[in-house]
Write a structure and sequence with these properties.
mainly alpha; elongated
């Protein structure tokens, strides 16, 4: 009778472990999906910000170009075109960021860095651990460690 009960308990334990593993996997998949969705929303906000900024900067550049051109013609000083050069670079950057392939080139470069220069990505003192976070928490709040509660 004891062997039969032991086998049933082992089977139940195994089923419970499989269930817990399945739940942990589902929870992690949900977490990954949520984090990816948040990343996508942040990227969309960044691109939207670039497009909105481009509207204002494009208007400013247009007015500056008209003003510099009128001033250069009226005063016969071609040096008044000089501000258009750096402003043109900023405008080109913003257009590329808002509508061009800037994001794709940036992603490719990030992938290259992760492959070829992974040592540059290391955090000082390594990744945070439970112990380091707990130590900082205790130091900041003057609380005893969680294990003592």
């Amino acid at each position: 009778m004891g062997i039969f009960a032991s086998k049933v308990m082992d089977q139940n334990l195994k089923k419970q472990q499989e269930f817990m593993l399945h739940n942990a996997r589902v929870q992690m998949e949900r977490q990954i999906l949520m984090q990816n969705e948040m990343r996508e929303r942040q990227m969309a906000m960044q691109i939207a910000w670039s497009r909105e900024f481009l509207k204002y900067f494009g208007s400013f550049f247009g007015l500056a170009a008209v003003g510099c051109t009128a001033g250069a013609i009226k005063r016969k000083k071609p040096g008044l075109f000089a501000p258009l050069v750096p402003l043109g670079f900023v405008l080109a950057y913003q257009v590329d960021m808002a509508y061009g392939s800037f994001i794709h080139r940036m992603r490719e470069e990030a992938e290259n860095i992760m492959v070829a220069e992974a040592d540059r990505l290391n955090l000082p003192h390594g990744p945070p651990t439970f112990e380091s976070i707990e130590k900082a928490r205790r130091a900041k709040s003057h609380l005893p460690p969680l294990s003592e509660k």
